Amino acid sequence: MKVFSETAKNESFIRDYYGGSFDATLRSLRMADGRAALVFQFDGLVNKMYIEDAIVRPLMGMTCRQERGRVYDVEAVKSTLVLGLDVKQTDELLSVLALCSCGDTAVFIDGFDQALVVQTRGWATRGISGPETDRSVRGPREAFGETMLLNATMLRRKIKSNRLVFEVLRIGELSKTDVCLAYVKGIAEDDLINRVRERISGVDVKYILESGHIEQLIEDSRRSVFATVGNTEKPDAAAEKLMKGRVAVLVDGTPFALTIPMVFTENFQTTEDYYSRPYYANIVRLLRVLAYVITICLPGLYVALVTYHQEMIPAKLLAMMIRASEGTVFSATLEMVIMLILYELLREALLRLPVPLGATVGIIGSFVIGDAAVSAGIIGAPVVVVVALTFICSAVVNSCAGSTAVLRLILLAGGAIFGLYGVLLAIFGTVAHMCSLKSFGTPYMMPLSPVKTRGLGDSLVRGRIENILGGRGKS
Amino acid sequence: MRRGAFLCAAAVLFAAPLLFGGCMGAQEELEAIAVIKGTAFDMSNTAAFRLSACVRLADESGADRFSIKTVDADSFAEALSSLPGEKTPFMGQNELVAIGEPLARRGVEQIVSELWSRRERDGAEQLVVIRGEAAKVYETEPDKASGPASAASAALENAAERGFVSLCTLSAMHRGSEARGACALVPVAQVDEGQLRITGMAVFCDYVMTDELSEKEMRGVRWLCGGAENAGFSVRSADETLGMTVERMEITMEKEPGKVKWDIACTIICDGPDKDADMARIAAENTIKSDALSAVAASKRIGADFLGAGDTDYVEEVTAEVKIKLR
């Protein structure tokens, strides 16, 4: 579809095309030379002041530098009248409209079958706020926002090298979402970049609203419980990964950047580990590993021990547990399942509710579960302790909450049906599955399996900082 | 096709152990188990033996109480299944296996083998022979919160730590009786007015109590086999009795054709600072030699190699060198 040379036809087409949407704003004006012009933009996506100053006023001959002569072509308008920094000239009407839906402004001039598209993006944003999911005591407090350009800027501020490249793709038949690939040329492997580009380009869906949509569409093993694409809302974490050879994917409209490839040990790494001295950082990192094991295994192990292997419980502890279980209504397995469901419900409620109400619900929920349920004999006290410990540990490794919840249930089922043998078999199967996973060609368990000595310097423990920052400790 | 066959084979390989692992369908809730803290075996007129089990129960206040449940049976599995009570017997915390002396003299192979095959405690239960009726051992120390089985077990451990008693676990008995020519020593105790008193050691050969060591022979075993550190004993010297405690000991056994020689070197703390150290040393050396030789004599008499010398028909020699520390 070509641009019409009559502004009236363009106006009519646009009105029809957008079905009279209130935000599709058309402004007809008469230029200084008497020629009719049409300015089109989406209200709310643009900087109106900028449009007035850079487009409307010059066209109407109200700038200091008056251009009273006749306008002979669009090129002359572009070079002498419109003041915008980024001005494109095109005759494809649909691409003009697509750009307008991203916040650009189109100028149609009567008698010319071409349009000018001026970059006038300027919608309201919530500004730069702190991260919600990965808070740190030491380190930057800023998080990505919903604007892709702003997010790219935040990365550019961290990595000022000319080797930092941003590539923009547009996906989603209806949403036409801007997706930006970020990588450091020379550090990220070309094969990886091509692979990411191909997979994102190959996404054929009607809409993309969040990076989570893309994550699920491009990852290697979509049936696995393990995420093989990382995500972060912290610019410093994204920059760190870019410097380690990852590709970041910024999606317009979401504060979460994807990082590709992702390996299992990344679940236990935070940017703060690199900002503090190695001794404490390593202790904390190992604690995260321990927390991960506990949060997955503890419910299953507990049920297996109390149901099948009571002889493995120390005598005094067993006596205490028997006393606690006297008079309870349900079996240990059912108690555990009830508690896990209750916890997930409580967690979900606290996530969705407003903060003041959430605190109230949290207190009531904890009290009901922790005290009333035990007093009423519905749940045994040891189960409450086990579930509390499980979820404290779960909070430590929040980055992989999705996979831990599923694995916990699998191990619980194994322990409830087959005892410790079932738990061990489930662990064995899980580890085997993890070893078979790949993230964009990189084994998910790298550098542990296959063992890569170079990567071990920053895996479950953190090595010397100069090796990591110098690139020799690439993981 | 090959992939499908491989997956089927893998599934069978995984599933088979799950089905035969023994866990499936064997679950017991905690409130449904009766924890057996100790067992006692006596002769029965109607069956192979009489089992008395000391079972821990929780009363309504949550405090522990212990109950003795008795049943006559021909096998241990039968005894457990017919034990009175609604709850399932749980042997995982069985601390003590008491055997009545008459039954011990008849032989305990069936009991030890059946207990050993259960493997819930991996053979860590303490064995003791009780003079008379074994079940009486659970009538001692009724007021102890830990229960009579734990109290009896603790008394045995204390006797081994501070005296010359050798403890014997179920696995030691199994090993000792299974090995050719070997034997097991099991403490012998009797219940006097609610108190457990160790009186000697029973010698078991092929699961049968063949003889009993006196207190002197029992001490001799520890002098020759070691493990007497911290043990207290008394000796007669110049018409008075001296209390002594073994601080350190070192035993050397030399074997030559037809001859076995033990050298015992030990440091002993003697009570009474005003005593003559030389006199005490000589008295201690004489006592140790005498005890050791009586143990050797017992080994010959019984025909059991509980000293680990290999052959009982040997020419033996024992030397003892004692250092005395006066306290």
Can you walk through the features of this model?
The complex is a heterodimer of chains A (475) and B (327). Chain A is an alpha+beta fold and 475 residues long. Chain A contains 16 helices and twelve strands. Chain A has helices spanning 7-17, 48-59, 74-80, 93-100, 148-158, 190-201, 211-218, 235-243, 272-275, 278-307, 315-325, 332-352, 355-375, 381-396, 401-436, 465-469, and strands at 24-30, 36-42, 87-90, 104-109, 115-119, 164-171, 177-184, 230-232, 247-251, 257-260, 438-439, 442-443. In chain A, the strands form three sheets. Chain A has a five-stranded antiparallel β-sheet, with helices on both faces. In chain A, strand 4 and strand 5 (115-119) form a beta hairpin. Chain A is elongated. With 327 residues, chain B is of the alpha/beta class. Helix content of chain B is 31%, strand content 35%. Chain B has eight helices and 13 strands. Chain B has helices at 2-20, 76-81, 101-106, 109-118, 148-162, 170-178, 215-225, 277-302, and strands at residues 33-42, 49-58, 64-73, 88-90, 96-100, 126-130, 184-192, 195-205, 208-213, 232-237, 240-256, 259-270, 315-326. In chain B, the strands form two sheets. In chain B, strands 1, 2, 3, 4, 5, 6, 7, 8 and 9 form a nine-stranded mixed β-sheet that branches. In chain B, helix 4 (109-118) crosses helix 6. The longest helix of chain B is centred in the last third of the chain and has 26 residues, at 277-302. Chain B is globular. The N and C termini of chain B lie far apart (85 Å). Classes of the chains: A alpha+beta (475), B alpha/beta (327). The interface between A and B is medium-sized, with 27 and 24 residues.
